[in-house]
């Protein structure tokens, strides 16, 4: 949140990584982690959300779950 506030103060667009998860499947863990990072990004006032739909962050981001990849940007609309 502090980084977002500094970016807003100096007039820069704020970019955050949101919608990331350590889960390799679209399960409850993936939904919870995606929801938390998206809601924190929205609460901080970020302008740009990136890297949505990447799964397995603890495994070196080797996985892309296409269900999660297509559902995450739709959550950002609301």
From TrEMBL:
Keywords tagged on the record: Methyltransferase, Transferase
Gene Ontology MF: a single term: methyltransferase activity
Gene3D superfamilies to which the protein is assigned, alphabetical: Trimethylamine methyltransferase-like
InterPro entries attached to this UniProt entry: MttB-like_sf, MTTB_MeTrfase
Keyword Methyltransferase on entry: yes
Any single biological process term in GO: methanogenesis
Pfam families: MTTB
Family stated for the protein in its record: Belongs to the trimethylamine methyltransferase family.
Protein name: Uncharacterized protein
